[in-house]
Specification:
By secondary structure, this protein is of the alpha/beta class. It has eleven helices and ten strands.
């Protein structure tokens, strides 16, 4: 497997500095967010700056984040959502990112229609060369666990290769079990976010800011990684935190600690990393 840094882990750091940090610490990849590229351009920068920085530090962009509003809008608003989605897919393609995270509705609990919008995103992905990845968020009202995500994927056009992104925090924080992970075909796992959960807040009550550095929390990460290893998953592990405590530290320290702990965890489970 290869190890990546999600740029949210060192969020306050300027975009080009994030890329520099990830490269200097030794990550193989860095996940980028569309919004931070838009902000970079809005401040007078160019996408070519990002391309050059990635090349200078030998970094890949394994996954691009994210497209939204596709599951909760209709009519002309839905068309606008798909237009924006296409722009983001095309931006991801320019950065050679193979995956685009597709975020479900936050407040609308219905999931029976989500396959329709996800099918449209899968088609955009086919046209742009970037795979649309169906995301679940443990504290969202709609898609918040692996079993429901599987249900949506089963309703999609199988020829478009519906896939999901696993996240240790979201698995632990909602009703996703280790048996659910065992039942998920490895072909449907496009990516894996690794993180930990605050040990003093119950499962089901945590939000993104409650994530802690891997090894400091309540999640049995060894068990999840053993399942991935058993399935033959050999793609990316990407550290994704939203911790104000870690944001306040030197980003180099944060990234270094994260990489060291990922490497140690993989070693303990017997997973080889590049």
């Amino acid at each position: 497997m290869r190890l990546s840094l999600n740029s949210s882990t060192i969020k306050p750091t300027p975009l080009l500095d994030k890329i520099k940090v990830a490269g200097e610490v030794g990550y193989k990849g860095i996940e980028l967010w569309a919004v931070e590229l838009y902000e970079h351009v809005g401040r007078g920068g160019e996408i070519s700056d990002v391309e050059k920085a990635l090349a200078d530090y030998g970094l890949e962009v394994p996954c691009f984040i994210a497209v939204r509003n596709w599951g909760e809008t209709k009519d002309w608003e839905y068309k606008l959502a798909l237009d924006e989605a296409r722009r983001r897919f095309e931006l991801a393609a320019r950065l050679n990112a193979p995956l685009m995270v597709c975020t479900p509705p936050m407040e609308q609990p219905e999931i029976g229609h989500l396959h329709e919008g996800y099918n449209d995103l899968l088609q955009i992905g086919k046209e742009t060369g970037v795979q649309a990845v169906l995301e679940y968020i443990s504290f969202f009202a709609s898609l918040n666990n692996v079993p429901d995500t599987v249900t949506v994927m089963e309703r999609c056009d199988a020829s478009l290769n519906p896939v999901t992104i696993l996240d240790a925090f979201h698995n632990w924080n909602n009703r996703t079990t280790l048996d659910d992970l065992r039942a998920l075909p490895v072909e449907q796992i496009a990516h894996y976010h690794i993180d930990d959960a605050a040990p003093d807040i119950p499962s089901g009550q945590q939000k993104d800011p409650d994530r802690v550095m891997i090894g400091d929390g309540a999640i049995d990460l060894h068990a999840e990684l053993n399942i991935l290893k058993g399935k033959g998953y050999d793609k990316w592990l990407s550290l994704e935190l939203f911790s104000e405590a870690w944001w306040a530290k030197d980003p180099l320290e944060c990234a270094k600690v994260g990489l060291e702990r990922m490497e140690a965890l993989c070693g303990e489970v017997g997973i080889a990393v590049e």
